Amino acid sequence: RHAGDTSFNHIRNRHCAVGLSHQLIRSINWHSLKDKKEDVKMTNLTSYRSRITFSLDDTTAKYSSGVIDEALRKILNEYTRAFPNTAAAEIMVRIGGKSQPLSPCLNLLTIIRVIHPYSSAPACSSACIREDYLLTWQDGTPYLFFSGGHIPQKDEVIFVEYAAKQTVEGLDDAAQTTVRDDHEDFLVVGAAGQAAMMRASGITEKWGHRPQETSALMLWGQQQYRRFLDFLTEVRSEQTLNVFPHSYWKLDKWDGK
Hints:
Blueprint lengths: L5 H6 L12 E5 L16 H11 L9 H18 L2 E8 L6 E3 L6 E8 L8 H4 L1 E2 L2 E6 L2 E6 L10 E8 L19 H20 L7 H26 L21
Antiparallel strand pairs: 1-2, 2-8, 3-7, 4-5, 4-8, 6-7
């Protein structure tokens, strides 16, 4: 098994020490390290609601905000699996130990890179990369468990780069929108399709509905959703995340030969 293999981490999800104090965390949006312009206005939940409503041509308020939000939530989760956000955090160790909580790594899905001990020195970024760790979970809280000899000590810094959920400002109390500008249109298409399918399923059970109109609405929703799935196939190929480390534990004396 690879040391950073998250499927193996899941199997070992109880293999962590407990009783650690709170850590000082400085979370960083990793995209801000890539010359992202601060004056760019990201689309929030209100804007998404408006665009999805326009796509549905809903002039009589047939779609409630709750339905639109749920449709966007489902689409956002699928988008995350194909194209996760990338973020980073610097963790100041308060109490030394093999197990360090990662609860301030917001919306964490999996770890991409760990540097420890971390400093701003250029040589550290490659020389101090750790691959002898496990990502484990305790009661929904992520922990970083170091299995190697160098145990984190008090006042050392651990740099964690990780894949995170995509968010839309205002949806489920998210503080910011992380969706790429050029991907926004496809999320609107997918959410409109989801909302149409949800409404078509609901009105089928109502008295007086016209089956032909319900079928047309369901078909339209499925077509929009299919366009979104095709988009996910395309953007997934753009994602270069590799969660597997370069080194690994040898299974036997012939492994790697």
